[in-house]
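Hey, I was hoping to borrow your eyes for a little while. No rush at all, and the record is pasted right below.
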Amino acid sequence: MSKKLNLLFILLALTTSLWAQSSVTTADSVNFQAQSTKKWYQSKSDVYYAPPISSAAIAAAGLIANVYGIKRLNDRPSISEETITALNINDVNPFDRGVFDHPVEEREDSHNFTDWGLYISVVLPFTLFIDDAIREDWLEVALMYAETQFITVNLYNYLGPGLVTRYRPITYMHGHPDVPMSELTDNNNARSFFSGHTANTSTGAFFFAKVLTDYHPEWSTAAKIGVFAGASIPPILVGYYRTRAYKHFYSDVIVGGAVGALTGVFIPQIHKWMRKKRNKNGKDTSFMPIMQPNMMGMYVKATF
């Protein structure tokens, strides 16, 4: 993932965390053990149960994990020239081999397009607040989105290149006059599986579709299908141009798009289930992060 993208996620987390803090009363200056946690974590949304402080704590934990995960990836050694020159296009499976049909000279323009596509898709969910009903729950939706994006980022960090070493298509172009060896030995080129750009683009687009349709259950099935069909366009475009940029194989972007779509839909769905369950049986669960010099954990209070 690019440094610009990491900065965007850090700003997202800090902004939503500050909003969350500003929404809490003076209870944060009082010993939580002597207070009713219920008023601290009251969820106002009728659609999702996403208490601000617990959601902010999850997002903050995701930010910390992301910083550590990216550092682990960046600290890896460069790829040796021997490894690069041993790569052979014919060893790539037939399905993925088609990426080499794209002109390698045009890879930079394709890369720039995918960066802009990613950035636009990541901020897309904030346009949800144009809707009056969603704007009333802006804090919970914003924090839930930060939580969702950081889950996607960390799936990439720890289960993508953090676990799987796959060389990007560009590394197979060694010997091409337009591809210097100094570009190929960068350790970033061992992060082909899966596509982080496509995953985060998909998360933003499908989170947008999921939240919008959840707040408008009165819409027809055809309208909802249309919204989700539209949500598939940004990750398809970003994924396609990631292959033209020689950053990923077809299978990398397919997996990345699937990971992002599942996260973008499933995390809001969990909060939706929590709301339905709480409304049905009156159970309440409160959360409080505990951070002390010799202890870090989560205070949980469940009412039955």
